[in-house]
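Handoff note, outgoing to incoming analyst
You'll be picking up this chain. Sequence as last confirmed:
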Amino acid sequence: MTINKVYNIDCLVGLKKMKDESVDLIFTDPPYFQYRAKNVKGLKNHKDVVTEFEFDLYKTEEEYLAFLEEVVAECFRVAKPGAAGYLFCGDDFVSYINKIIEKTGFQFRKVIHWHKTNPFPAIYTRKMYSNSMELIVHFSKGTPKTWNHKEVNKMHNFIETPICMGKERKSHKTQKPLKVCIPFIEISSNEGDLILDPFMGSGSTAVAAQKLGRNYIGFERSKEYCDIIKERLRELDGN
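Most recent structure output, in case you need it:
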């Protein structure tokens, strides 16, 4: 498959076309399972808790987790020995994802906490705290081959930055800011490495890779989001 390209296909279709041990880093934000919240009183209309119903393909947790396991297993196959991975998730599924990571052959390394400094405010009448924390599971295929150590105070399993705002913000509901992506890509890859994102979404992984001199390959089912990615990459090139 051609690198530095985002394919408008299902990730499992695309992953099965990739060669074994061809990827240096996996960096991805899979769809979260939100279906159950649709029928929970006080949650179904709360935009801070339920932001991506449109991404739900499965009606049960079992179906969702089986899907993720199949994706992660394919990622293990295409990852080079020593390749690292970062996978965004919510706090309610992190333990399940850690088990999937290890079941498929990867080594779980650490949970990283992203503190959003500008989360959607909680609504008083629903008696809920603002959802200001998102998690990133760090894993690897054996011992990480690349570990570009930064200053000690930048090597914490905690990062604090606002959600996407201003010119960076596109119409994708769960767009990840470059300030969250870039530090981990710098640490776990080198220039010229190939980064895989099975769920490209708004294309933050591709944009970060291009800015840092890395190569990328990814998949995105939505034609609308593929168009957003193309726009972002054109803006980066100045065209």
